[in-house]
Design a protein that fits this description.
GO molecular function: cysteine-type peptidase activity
Number of domains: 3
Number of helices: 11
CATH superfamily of the largest domain: Cysteine proteinases
CATH topology of the largest domain: Cathepsin B, Chain A
Family: Belongs to the peptidase C1 family.
Bound molecules: 2-acetamido-2-deoxy-beta-D-glucopyranose
Organism: Leptosia nina
Radius of gyration: 33 Å
InterPro entries: Papain-like_cys_pep_sf (IPR038765), Pept_asp_AS (IPR025661), Pept_his_AS (IPR025660), Peptidase_C1A (IPR013128), Peptidase_C1A_C (IPR000668), Somatomedin_B_dom (IPR001212)
Protein name: SMB domain-containing protein
Length: 435
C-alpha cells in the first residue's frame, strides 16, 4: 500500500479538528469517476487513482485496516453511501497563495471579503467582497501621476483602508449652505490696484499665521477653519499683541445647537457662535478630535472660564465681528492682503485626498459620484509658469500635501473654492489695535 499517502492522510487527520479540514487533498471524483474500477470488492491494488504524488484506493481493503487511510477522498460517499464531512470535499478560497475556508475574512483596502460557499452541492467556494469606493485608490494614483498633470497624487498610508463615504464625513465636515446663506450678498471692493504676483500671508506676517491642524478622524473642518482664520486675524489686527491659537474645540464642544460635532457643522451657525460667545485659547481647551463636554458657561468671560488671558487688557473671550462674503478673485486677494487669511468652502471628490503637490484641479480620475464640502483657510496666491493658484491650509496635518497646505487653480472657481469665501474682523482689544 502506498506509504506516502498514509502519511499525508494521517497529518490531515490530526488537523481535522477545524470545521473544514483536509484542504490539501483534491476532492475528486475518484471512486465516483465514471470509468473502470469503481468500488472494488476485497483487496484490489489496481482499483486505484492518482492523488497528489501517490495513489488512493476504492477497494474494500482500504476500509479494513484500523486507519483506513488509503481510501480515496470520496470512498465513503460513493462506495459506502456515507455523506462525508463537508470539509472533506470543500474547495478552499485562495488569495496570494494562501487558502481560506468558509467564514474566513480578509481585507482588500477598505473592503472586507469573506470566503463563502457558492454551491452547496459541489461545495465550491468564492470570495464575497464589499464594493465600496475607498479613500485611497490605485486608479487615482496611477491616473493623476501621468505626464501633463499640474499636480501629483500619493497613496497616504493614514488614509489607506478607509471608505470614501466615511472620509467625506470624518475628513471634511461642512454641511451644505442654507439658501439664505448662499444668497448672502458679497462684499465688493472693486479696487483697481496692481496685485503682487505672489502673496503668502506666512511671509507677510511671520509668526502670526497659525500652524496646520490635524482634525483627525472627526468632521470638524468647520470649527478648525474658523478658529484658524480668527486666530490669524487677531494676531494681524493687534500687530502681534494678541497672537495666539484659538481653540476649535470650543466650537466642537460648545456650539451644539443644529451642529453635529464630528459628523459636521454649519459654518454660518459657527461664525455666529464665534461672534456671540467667542472662543478661548487653544491651550485653555486643546483640540481632542471628539465632542467632549463643554466646560464653559454660555457667554462667559475668560476669567470665569478659568483661562488665564495672555493679554493683560483682555477679560472677554475672543470674539469676531459679523462675517462677510467674498466671491470675486480680486476681492478675495484684496481682503487677504489687507486683513489676513479667509475661509473658503470647496467641493471635494476622491482624487483630492491623494494630493501631494502641485496645482490641484479636479481630475475626474477615480470616483466622481460621491462628494463633500470642505472648509479651508486660504492664505495667499501665486503664479507658476503662467498658472495661477491659491495657497490654502488644509486640516489634515503637516504630513499631507505641501507641508499641510495645497495649491489650487485660481480665477476659475476650481472645485467651487471661489464661490463662498468668508472674511471677518476680529474683536481686538482696543489698546492692542493696529495703528
Ligand atoms: C468502513 O468504515 C466505516 C467508518 O468510516 C464504518 O462505518 C464501516 O462499518 C466500515 N466498513 C467495513 C466493511 O469495515
Ligand atoms: C498603499 O499603501 C498601503 C499601505 O499604506 C499598501 O498596503 C498598498 O499596497 C499601497 N497601494 C499602492 C497601490 O501602492
Amino acid at each position: 500500500m502506498a506509504k506516502t499517502l498514509h502519511i499525508v492522510l494521517l497529518c490531515a487527520t490530526i488537523t481535522a479538528t477545524a470545521a473544514y479540514h483536509r484542504p490539501d487533498l483534491p476532492p475528486g471524483p475518484y471512486c465516483g469517476q465514471p470509468s473502470n474500477n469503481q468500488c472494488c470488492r476485497d483487496r484490489k491494488d489496481d482499483c486505484s487513482h492518482r492523488i497528489l504524488d501517490t495513489l488512493c484506493y476504492c477497494d474494500e481493503f482500504c476500509n479494513r485496516t484500523r486507519a483506513h487511510d488509503d481510501c480515496c477522498p470520496d470512498y465513503e460517499a460513493v462506495c459506502l453511501g456515507i455523506q462525508p464531512d463537508p470539509g472533506f470535499l470543500i474547495q478552499p478560497c485562495n488569495y496570494r497563495n494562501k487558502q481560506y475556508f468558509p467564514g474566513d475574512k480578509r481585507s482588500d483596502n477598505c473592503n472586507t471579503c469573506e470566503c463563502v460557499i457558492t454551491n452547496e452541492v459541489t461545495l465550491t467556494t468564492d470570495w464575497k467582497c464589499e464594493r465600496d469606493a475607498c479613500l485611497m485608490s490605485e486608479d487615482v494614483v496611477y491616473g493623476v501621476n501621468q505626464p501633463g498633470m499640474s499636480w501629483r497624487a500619493y497613496n497616504y498610508s493614514q488614509f489607506y483602508g478607509k471608505k470614501l463615504k466615511d472620509g467625506l464625513i470624518y475628513k471634511l465636515g461642512t454641511f451644505p449652505l442654507s439658501r439664505e446663506t448662499r444668497r448672502m450678498g458679497a462684499i465688493r471692493y472693486d479696487k483697481n490696484i496692481a496685485y503682487p504676483q505672489n502673496f503668502d500671508a506666512r511671509r507677510r506676517w511671520p509668526n502670526f499665521i497659525s500652524a496646520v491642524v490635524d482634525q483627525g478622524w472627526c468632521g470638524s473642518d468647520w470649527a478648525v477653519s474658523i478658529a484658524g482664520v480668527a486666530s490669524d486675524r487677531f494676531a494681524i489686527q493687534s500687530n502681534g499683541a494678541e497672537a495666539l491659537a484659538l481653540s476649535p474645540q470650543t466650537l466642537l464642544s460648545c456650539n451644539l445647537r443644529q451642529q453635529q460635532g464630528c459628523r459636521g457643522g454649519h459654518i454660518d451657525i459657527a461664525w455666529n457662535f464665534a461672534r456671540g460667545h467667542g472662543l478661548v485659547d487653544e491651550r485653555c481647551f486643546p483640540y481632542k478630535a471628539a465632542v467632549v463636554r463643554c466646560p464653559f458657561r454660555p457667554r462667559g468671560n475668560l476669567i470665569e472660564d478659568g483661562c488665564r488671558p495672555p493679554v493683560r487688557q483682555r477679560t472677554s473671550r475672543y470674539k469676531v465681528g459679523p462675517p462677510g462674503r467674498l466671491s470675486k478673485e480680486a476681492d478675495i486677494m484684496y481682503d487677504i492682503m489687507e486683513s489676513g487669511p479667509v475661509q473658503a468652502v470647496m467641493t471635494v471628490y476622491q482624487d483630492f485626498f491623494h494630493y501631494r503637490d502641485g496645482i490641484y484641479r479636479h481630475s475626474r480620475h477615480g470616483d466622481n459620484t460621491l462628494q463633500g464640502l470642505h472648509s479651508v483657510r486660504m492664505i495667499g496666491w501665486g503664479e507658476e509658469r503662467g498658472d495661477k493658484y491659491w495657497i490654502v491650509a488644509n486640516s489634515w496635518g503637516p504630513e499631507w500635501g505641501e507641508n499641510g497646505y495645497f495649491r489650487i487653480a485660481r480665477g476659475v472657481d476650481e472645485s467651487g473654492i471661489e464661490s463662498f469665501v468668508v472674511t471677518v474682523l476680529s474683536d481686538v482689544t482696543e489698546a492692542n489695535q493696529k495703528k
